[in-house]
């Protein structure tokens, strides 16, 4: 176990994700200064239902893109791993920001190839409906669920379930279940939109033969 500075946010960050943040609170401006001076990392546990979640993602500061006269900052970060909070502190000793004693969690990235193929097909359908075909074309063949999680239309709570899943196969099952549930709804919505667009237009229909 080790101690880690924390920056709770109302979102889920997945390992490998690059996250840009605008920092305006003085305590987190101090956190950025400590990252620059001491090379420390910090954790982002999702703030859900009025409390700091047990699981979080560790982020490394990549760069400060802009410093404002007011002291605010634009920063670039990258998520590098998962942790579980063992003991939470509202302030670390001598620091204005929160922290925790954390336990690093292993990353089981082995996927089920059959589930992967099914998911790729469903994700292609989803992106086509949403007009995101270009993003699908750019998707790596060996994508992980983490890579597409924010484009699956999940709630923050559902994304946290993905974060809590211990293996890639478990994440594949969660994503597959979600897509199989929402795709029929989206497809029916598209059909309804098409009927609305055609309403009032001249229709070239073939009458039935009887």
Tags for this model:
6 helices; Archaeosine Trna-guanine Transglycosylase, Chain: A, domain 4; globular; 38% helix; two-stranded antiparallel ribbon; 210 residues; alpha+beta; 2 domains
Written overview of the protein:
It is a single chain. This protein starts with a strand and ends in a 12-residue tail after the last helix. The protein has 2 domains: 2-105, LON domain-like (Archaeosine Trna-guanine Transglycosylase, Chain: A, domain 4), CATH 2.30.130.40; 113-198, no CATH class. α2 (113-130) runs parallel beside α6. Helix content is 38%, strand content 26%. By secondary structure, the protein is α+β, with helices and mostly antiparallel strands. It is globular. The model has no long low-confidence stretch (mean pLDDT 91). The strands form 2 sheets. Strands 1-3-6-7-8 form a 5-stranded mixed barrel. A two-stranded antiparallel ribbon has the order 4-5. The longest helix has 31 residues, at 168-198.
């Amino acid at each position: 176990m080790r101690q880690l500075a924390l920056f709770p946010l109302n979102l889920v960050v997945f390992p490998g994700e690059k996250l840009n943040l605008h920092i305006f609170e003085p305590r987190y401006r101090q956190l950025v200064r400590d990252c620059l001076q001491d090379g420390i990392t910090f954790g982002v546990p999702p703030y859900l239902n009025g409390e700091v979640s047990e699981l979080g993602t560790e982020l490394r500061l990549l760069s400060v893109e802009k410093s404002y006269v007011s002291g605010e900052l634009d920063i670039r970060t990258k998520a590098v791993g998962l942790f579980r909070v063992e003991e939470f502190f509202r302030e670390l000793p001598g620091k204005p920001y929160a922290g925790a004693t954390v336990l690093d969690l292993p990353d089981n990235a082995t996927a089920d190839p059959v589930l992967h193929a099914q998911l790729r097909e469903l994700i292609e359908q989803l992106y086509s409906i949403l007009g995101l075909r270009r993003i699908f074309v750019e998707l790596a063949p060996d994508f992980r669920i983490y890579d597409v999680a924010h484009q699956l239309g999940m709630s923050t709570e559902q994304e946290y379930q993905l974060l809590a899943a211990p293996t890639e196969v478990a994440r594949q099952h969660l994503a597959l279940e979600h897509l199989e549930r929402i795709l029929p709804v989206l497809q029916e919505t598209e059909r309804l939109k098409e009927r609305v667009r055609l309403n009032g237009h001249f229709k070239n229909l073939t009458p039935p033969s009887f």
